[in-house]
């Protein structure tokens, strides 16, 4: 699914109007040139210039931000330090470096504690939520967006209220709660129209266009994307323009207007490359791949789809997800530790004052009792902190193990040798001028690749979809091996294929082992039987073949190891039937 783009508002809390065009930029540069004094006003000007440049020239934006940070530290202006940290987070987010973005957002929160500005914290909550949304941790994203919306409504900031509506609408859309997504985007569009904010209006119209595509209402989708493209060009919002161009490409693809679809998708791809945005390039490449596929240009379809997958995989690794979680935990721990130390300091100061006031009346028993009380309090605090630390450590270890297991399962889903062999088979058909078989094989191979790559993004898929992918895999292997084996899939009638969920491609490694270690080495024809039946509330999946047997295979130990690991997972997997 194409990720819906929403424009983030970078409303810095300074007393200078938002600048959005070259005239405002030149004006601020003149102010900066005239103001040679190193004070807070210069810091504000530097940050506003950085904010103007953030989309079209993020490197220059970071340069002005670094200068603002250096000056804030020289004059010891804590608010300027916090604002500079936040601006650095903005720049890294635009550069899709979410690890560094989260790092600087948390530094901004920590630096802003002394400011005691609730609205400043709200803007950080919004951008932390953006990162969680990108990580598809929608629950945490909604928690942070809700905090942002609540504060925006308290201070009656229409701009920030609009941004919160956009972001919450995006989350509901990603979760396929389309009516809720539509409602929140319409709330945001109403505010954008009231305030004359055409730049953000363009982004909202893109979001509405995507929802109407999901509803198959291509007429309304086309209208919204065309309006967005017009506003984006008027306001020079290149980000919204890239999204609108790809949205129009998607619509023309659905309408089978392939030349127009190819034209708009290529324009979106070129603009996304100029902006340096990897995710938008991937979206445009996906649309191009589908367009080529519909035109039977399978070579370009497969090539562009491969490019899209490589770009998507490079946006955020599992390691960075763990690092982000670790940073947030560290921030919470440091904050709690600081609160405990502050409370201890306050209690000790009050105790010292009380002791000094009653110095004459103090006696040995009171002194001993007071000391015992301090020891007890300190012991309780240390005991609680130790328990909290152990719990967090256990939770972190568990999450790491889960992520590692999921990653291993994903990496084991498809042997790269199968892909190479399939491509060699296609080449062999072409060399033999067997166009019909080459086309049939290529079509099945492309369909299987698409199913595997789409299902790999899900933790669970329907049993029917997974069996379809498995059957395609066996068809391709049978064709490649010149029909050396036949296969049969049996599913109990009391199992609902459409409403039963299983991990994607859970049976494929078993079937692959049957083909490579059993059937391929067997003299004569082979057969593979896949049977699925229920045992209580569990699903039992069995793969059988009439090959040479596991003990005669040169990879018997490896096969046995894979078998044990996957069967253990399968036996503990409950049917969602």
Q: Could you explain the architecture of this structure?
A:
GO terms for molecular function: phosphorelay sensor kinase activity. Residues 1-19 form the signal peptide. With 577 residues, the protein is mainly α. Among the domains are: 1-116, Serine Threonine Protein Phosphatase 5, Tetratricopeptide repeat (Alpha Horseshoe), CATH 1.25.40.10; 318-411; 416-571, Heat Shock Protein 90 (2-Layer Sandwich), CATH 3.30.565. The chain is 73% helix and 5% strand. Residues 1-21 and 556-577 have low confidence and may be disordered.
Entry keywords:
Heat Shock Protein 90, Serine Threonine Protein Phosphatase 5, Tetratricopeptide repeat, 22 helices, mainly alpha, two-stranded antiparallel ribbon, three-stranded mixed beta sheet, 577 residues
Blueprint of the fold:
Elements: H1 22-34, H2 40-53, H3 58-74, H4 78-94, H5 98-111, H6 118-134, H7 138-154, H8 158-174, H9 178-195, H10 198-214, H11 218-235, H12 238-254, H13 258-275, H14 278-294, H15 298-315, H16 318-357, H17 364-411, H18 416-431, H19 435-455, E1 461-462, H20 463-480, E2 485-491, E3 501-502, H21 508-519, E4 526-535, E5 538-545, H22 556-571
Parallel strand pairs: 2-4
Antiparallel strand pairs: 1-3, 4-5
Helix pairs in contact: 1-2, 2-3, 2-4, 3-4, 4-5, 5-6, 5-16, 6-7, 6-8, 7-8, 8-9, 9-10, 10-11, 10-12, 11-12, 12-13, 12-14, 13-14, 14-15, 16-17, 18-19, 19-20, 21-22
């Amino acid at each position: 699914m194409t990720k819906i783009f929403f424009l983030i508002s970078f409303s810095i809390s300074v007393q200078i109007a938002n600048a959005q065009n070259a005239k405002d930029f030149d004006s601020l540069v003149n102010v900066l040139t005239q103001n040679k004094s190193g004070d807070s006003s210069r810091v504000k000007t530097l940050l506003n210039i950085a904010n103007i440049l953030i989309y079209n020239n993020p490197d220059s934006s970071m340069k002005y931000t670094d200068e603002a940070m250096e000056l804030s530290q020289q004059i010891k202006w804590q608010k300027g330090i916090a604002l500079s940290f936040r601006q650095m987070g903005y720049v890294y987010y635009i550069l899709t470096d979410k690890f560094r973005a989260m790092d600087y957002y948390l530094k901004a929160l920590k630096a802003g504690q002394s400011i005691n500005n609730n609205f400043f914290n709200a803007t950080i909550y919004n951008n932390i939520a953006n990162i969680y949304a990108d990580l598809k941790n929608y629950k945490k994203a909604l928690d942070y967006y809700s905090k942002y919306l609540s504060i925006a409504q308290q201070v009656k900031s229409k701009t920030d209220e609009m941004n919160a509506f956009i972001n919450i609408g995006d989350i509901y859309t990603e979760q396929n709660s389309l009516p809720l997504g539509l409602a929140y985007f319409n709330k945001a569009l109403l505010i954008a129209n009231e305030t004359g904010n055409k730049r953000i209006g363009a982004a909202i119209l893109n979001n509405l266009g995507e929802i109407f595509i999901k509803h198959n209402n291509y007429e309304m989708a086309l209208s919204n994307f065309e309006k967005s493209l017009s506003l984006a060009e008027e306001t020079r919002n290149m980000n919204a323009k890239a999204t609108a161009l790809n949205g129009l490409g998607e619509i023309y693809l659905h309408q089978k207007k392939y030349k127009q679809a190819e034209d708009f998708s290529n324009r979106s791809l070129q603009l996304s490359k100029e902006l340096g945005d990897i995710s938008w390039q991937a979206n445009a490449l996906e649309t191009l791949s589908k367009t080529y596929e519909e035109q039977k240009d399978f070579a370009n379809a497969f090539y562009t789809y491969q490019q899209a997958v490589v770009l998507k995989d490079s946006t955020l690794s599992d390691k960075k997800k763990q690092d982000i979680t670790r940073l947030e935990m560290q921030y919470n721990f440091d904050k709690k530790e600081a609160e405990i130390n502050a409370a201890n300091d306050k209690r000790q100061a009050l105790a010292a004052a009380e002791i000094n006031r009653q110095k004459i009346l103090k006696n040995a028993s009171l002194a001993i009792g007071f000391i015992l009380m301090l020891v007890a309090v300190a012991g309780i605090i240390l005991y609680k902190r130790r328990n909290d630390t152990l719990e967090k450590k256990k939770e972190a270890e568990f999450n790491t193990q889960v992520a590692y297991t999921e990653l291993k399962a994903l990496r084991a889903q498809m042997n790269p040798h199968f892909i190479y062999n399939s491509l060699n088979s296609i080449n062999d058909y072409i060399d033999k001028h067997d166009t019909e078989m080459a086309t049939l094989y290529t079509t099945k191979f492309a369909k299987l690749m698409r199913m595997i790559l789409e299902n790999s993004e899900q933790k669970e898929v329907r049993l029917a979809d997974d069996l379809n992918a498995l059957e395609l895999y066996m068809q391709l292997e049978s064709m490649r091996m010149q029909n050396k084996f036949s296969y049969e899939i049996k599913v109990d009638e009391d199992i609902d294929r459409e409403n039963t969920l299983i991990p994607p491609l859970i049976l494929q490694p078993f079937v692959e082992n049957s083909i490579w270690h059993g059937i391929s080495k067997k003299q004569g024809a082979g057969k593979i039987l896949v049977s699925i039946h229920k045992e209580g509330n569990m699903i039992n999946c069995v793969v059988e073949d009439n090959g040479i047997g596991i003990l005669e295979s040169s990879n018997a130990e490896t096969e046995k190891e894979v078998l044990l690991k996957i069967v253990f997972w399968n036996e503990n997997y409950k049917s969602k039937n």
